[in-house]
Specification:
This protein is mainly α. Helix content is 75%, strand content 0%. The protein contains 4 helices and no strands.
Length: 59
């Protein structure tokens, strides 16, 4: 695994944890894990986990 993929995986794991354990808005979570905006975060999240952040949070 490349260093960039490893860092991205860590970010997504942290974001998933925050979605499960907090009521933070998705934009706040995106910023806290290092994404400048919700769109780029959502795109990366769906690519990594296979579902959108909204769908993941509802599960």
């Amino acid at each position: 695994m490349s260093p960039m993929k490893f860092v991205q995986q860590l970010r997504m794991n942290e974001a998933a944890l925050l979605m499960k354990q907090t009521d933070y808005k998705l934009a706040e979570i995106a910023q806290s894990v290092g994404y400048p905006d919700l769109f780029s975060f959502s795109k990366a999240f769906k690519k990594q986990l296979g579902v959108s952040p909204n769908t993941y949070r509802k599960q």
